[in-house]
Amino acid sequence: MKKQTVQMLIGAIVLVALIAAVVVYMPNLDAQSLYNWFKDNMGYTLIFLLMAVESSFIPFPSEIVVPPAAYFACSGASHANINVVMVVVVATLGALVGACVNYVISMFIGRPVIYGFANSRIGHMCLIDAEKVEKSEKYFASHGAVSTFLGRLIPGIRQLISIPAGLARMNFFKFCVFTSLGAGIWNVALAVLGWWLSTFVAEPDLYAQLEANNKYLTYAGFALFGVVVLYIAYKGLKAKPMKTK
């Protein structure tokens, strides 16, 4: 095993341990309790760690991290001395780190499991074999950048899109670039919500307003996804100019 590969695996294990430590020290996974805990301990480090948790294999709502942080950064109603631009940057870095955890774990653990199943009798009964898995990997290798970018915009898919990227051994640099772009757009949308709420919502009413507007975040995610898909479809279907002889 190459030295770089070993370092990536060790790094993923360390990050998983950090994420697990954050989860252990969290209050019971109740949204109201998590919001209160985050508000009382707000800072760049916690934003980074919680967004890494949200972007990894552990289900966690980013909606109770970035919007409140942006709200307090814009309103100055918190003891935490934070800047809204840095909130987006740190949240995006955290999302990238969490996605890299999924990528590395999928590459080193998930891939052997998938191929083992494909080569098994049960896999063959399900009409799956190693050749089909290889074809799917080649497809993701060719179209993985777009899939990764779009996946970061879809609620419920954001945390999972890095798994097939790892299984297909997508180019790691491209994976990081398109994950960062997608996560950055999503975090900007969350930060805009926090800024907007800071213009008219009192701090005691913030959690209720976040709950009330949560569905619009989902709509925004699908809307962004739809716009990008339409653009890609337009570019793909646009007639190429005829070559003159």
Number of strands: 0
Number of domains: 1
End-to-end separation: 54 Å
Taking the sheet with the most strands, its summary is: none
Question: In brief, what are we looking at here?
Answer:
Helix 1 crosses helix 3. The longest helix is centred in the middle third of the chain and has 35 residues, at 84-118. The chain has helices at residues 3-25, 31-40, 44-55, 66-75, 84-118, 121-125, 130-151, 162-167, 172-198, 206-237.
Describe this structure in words.
The termini are far apart. The chain has 245 residues and is an all-alpha fold. The protein has helices at 3-25, 31-40, 44-55, 66-75, 84-118, 121-125, 130-151, 162-167, 172-198, 206-237. The radius of gyration is 20 Å and the shape is elongated. The protein has one domain (3-52, 62-235).
